[in-house]
Design brief:
rod-shaped; Beta-lactamase Inhibitory Protein, Chain:B, domain 1
Length: 114
């Protein structure tokens, strides 16, 4: 009987450890982490203030970066979108559209990030 008791003791310890590991895994999986999700170009008001009607596309791109959307049929319009989600909720959304004529900036519409 002593021999049987000694053989089952390591099994009981292994079971306890396994139960603890499973319990820990279950408890940690209950809390859901939602990462902050940023999409698009974050354009500041300071950057938009640097734009001037008459600038060429290269100058605009140096200030704002590459636009999020360049329309296939309307190459003279650039759109800069930005959205920020925290905990699955939309916190911030901006849309800035630029129009060009003959490679020169003609119109700025929308708003930049505050």
């Amino acid at each position: 009987m002593n021999v049987e008791h000694k053989n089952t003791e390591p099994l009981k310890q292994m079971q306890k450890i396994l139960i603890q590991i499973i319990s820990l895994a279950i408890l940690t999986s209950c809390s859901v982490y939602r990462a902050e999700l940023q999409q698009g170009n974050l354009i500041s008001q300071e950057s938009v203030a640097m734009l001037r009607v008459g600038m060429d596309k290269r100058e605009v791109q140096k200030i704002l970066g590459t636009p999020m959307v360049r329309h296939a049929f309307t190459r003279d319009r650039w759109d800069y979108f930005y959205s920020l989600k925290q905990d699955g909720k939309l916190v911030k959304k901006t849309n800035l559209s630029l129009s060009f004529n003959k490679n020169r900036l003609t119109q700025i519409s929308g708003k930049a990030a505050e």
